[in-house]
């Protein structure tokens, strides 16, 4: 294939230094794949016949990032470039790491150990594109295939099963049948992969393409990532507001929400509590009283298990907690604003919109119009700088102490009492008026 990649000058410097000193060297993997697709690569990895100690000799600053696997990082200015010696991975001991690696002198052997054909291409300006495993053809066909036998590749490293689905999501490619079948067969091996690694692949899938959730379901991997979700697959909701089963509703609402990770996670987990709260009335209509509270507990457990950071967990669980709350009046908007703040309230409106759009369309118009009105009310409250929290109250703890209140819990209780009054009646947010109300409270 007559194909030219514009290699950045620092990367070219590393390649040229290796080649001019008698060592084969190529850019390899994702940067080649992205270049063939016409995308700008984020990372530039280099593979070479030179051994790590020979690479170290040639460059001023080298960091020993993964020397036991033949990888060092060459620093050019402030940028680092991974340079890995051609290698053959030995036997894998834990479905993830080779016990040992063996350096080889042949580029084809090095490329043969890689995961997918689209990631097993190499390039330099002298030889052009090196594509022993039909990576270009698979890019044209929009298909994910392993290099060699899929079962062997996935037994070596079980994370590759998730990577296959992630690449499929990011590139909007299909996965070849034998690759998909092997994932189904070996899905249990995912237990050997760290939660952090699973989480990182899952995050990339969620923000790329919701179809990845379907592929995870189809292969049986989804229930390893989100416990209980397999129980939603055939869970009928039997309620006039719903035309989809619980899984279908979850998937659609996840697809419809804005493409931010914590919002995607919110929709994926927002209704899990329905599995534990389903009741039926005399007309065989199902109800799910208290499901938001139960969903919070289940979501928190799932997110902690995957080692999500506290900020993400807090955002997701707060949005789930209030996803079913009724917002209509200006007062209800102000009370919610007091509880969760402006940013999360704007997110909550997005969550409720996605939830409604994934339900029965008969009720959609009025409920979406209501959310538009809620957003307008929120904008008015913000523009008018109406008081919804203690910091905007025209009176503080010291003012209360000055008129005779005791320090401690009582101050907080009175301030919250006054804030409640101001939220209901904004005109009361005046220092003299509030002091008068507080004095009356003190004397009563």
TrEMBL record:
Pfam families listed in its UniProt record: PolyA_pol (PF01743), PolyA_pol_RNAbd (PF12627), tRNA_NucTran2_2 (PF13735)
Domain tRNA nucleotidyltransferase/poly(A) polymerase RNA and SrmB- binding, chain residue ranges per copy: 172-230
Cofactor(s) named in the record: Mg(2+)
Coiled-coil region list: none
GO molecular function: metal ion binding; nucleotide binding; nucleotidyltransferase activity; tRNA binding
Residues covered by the CCA-adding enzyme C-terminal domain: 289-437
Keywords: Magnesium, Metal-binding, Nucleotide-binding, Nucleotidyltransferase, RNA-binding, Transferase, tRNA processing
InterPro entries: Bact_CCA-adding_enz_type3_sf (IPR050264), CCA-adding_enz_C (IPR032810), HD/PDEase_dom (IPR003607), NT_sf (IPR043519), PolA_pol_head_dom (IPR002646), PolyA_RNA-bd (IPR032828)
Gene3D superfamilies: 1.10.246.80, Beta Polymerase, domain 2, cca-adding enzyme, domain 2
Residue ranges annotated for the Poly A polymerase head domain, each copy included: 25-144
GO biological process terms held by the UniProt record: tRNA processing
CDD domains membership: HDc, NT_ClassII-CCAase
Family listed: Belongs to the tRNA nucleotidyltransferase/poly(A) polymerase family.
Identification of the protein by name: tRNA nucleotidyltransferase (CCA-adding enzyme)
Organism of derivation: Clostridium uliginosum
């Amino acid at each position: 294939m007559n194909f030219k990649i514009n290699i950045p000058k620092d990367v070219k410097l590393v390649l040229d230094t290796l080649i001019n000193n008698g060592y084969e060297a190529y850019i390899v993997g994702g940067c080649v794949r992205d270049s063939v697709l016409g995308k700008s690569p984020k990372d530039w990895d280099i593979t070479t016949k030179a051994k790590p100690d020979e690479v170290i000799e040639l460059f001023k600053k080298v960091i020993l990032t993964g020397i036991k696997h033949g990888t060092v990082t060459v620093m050019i200015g402030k940028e680092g470039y991974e340079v890995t010696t051609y290698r053959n991975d030995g036997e894998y001991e834990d479905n993830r790491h080779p016990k040992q690696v063996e350096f080889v002198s042949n580029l084809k052997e090095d490329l043969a150990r890689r995961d997918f054909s689209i990631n097993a291409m190499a390039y330099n300006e002298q030889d052009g594109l090196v594509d022993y495993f039909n990576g270009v053809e698979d890019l044209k066909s929009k298909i994910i295939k392993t290099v060699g036998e899929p079962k062997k590749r996935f037994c070596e490293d079980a994370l590759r099963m998730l990577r296959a689905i992630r690449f499929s999501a990011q590139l909007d490619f299909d996965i070849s049948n034998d690759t998909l079948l092997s994932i189904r067969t070996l899905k249990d091996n995912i237990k050997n992969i760290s939660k952090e690694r699973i989480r990182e692949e899952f995050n990339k899938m969620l923000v790329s393409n919701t179809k990845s959730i379907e592929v995870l379901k189809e292969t049986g991997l989804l229930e390893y990532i989100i416990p209980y979700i397999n129980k939603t697959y055939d869970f009928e909701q039997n309620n006039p507001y719903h035309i989809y089963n619980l899984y279908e509703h979850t998937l659609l609402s996840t697809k419809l929400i804005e493409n931010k990770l914590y919002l995607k996670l919110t929709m994926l987990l927002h209704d899990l509590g329905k599995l534990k709260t389903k009741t039926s009335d005399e007309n065989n209509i199902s109800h799910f009283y208290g499901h938001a509270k139960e969903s919070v507990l289940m979501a928190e457990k799932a997110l902690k298990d995957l080692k999500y950071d506290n900020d993400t967990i807090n955002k997701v669980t707060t949005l789930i907690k209030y996803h079913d709350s009724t917002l209509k009046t200006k007062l209800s908007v102000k009370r919610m604003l007091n509880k969760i703040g402006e940013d999360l309230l704007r997110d909550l409106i997005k969550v409720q919109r996605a939830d409604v759009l994934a339900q029965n369309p008969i009720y959609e118009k009025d409920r979406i119009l209501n959310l538009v009105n809620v957003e307008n009310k929120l904008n008015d409250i913000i523009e008018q700088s109406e008081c919804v929290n203690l910091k905007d109250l025209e009176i503080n703890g010291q003012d209360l102490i000055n008129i005779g209140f005791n320090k401690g819990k009582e101050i907080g209780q009175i301030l919250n009492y006054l804030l409640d009054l101001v939220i209901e009646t904004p005109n009361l947010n005046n220092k003299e008026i509030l002091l008068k109300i507080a004095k009356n409270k003190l004397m009563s």
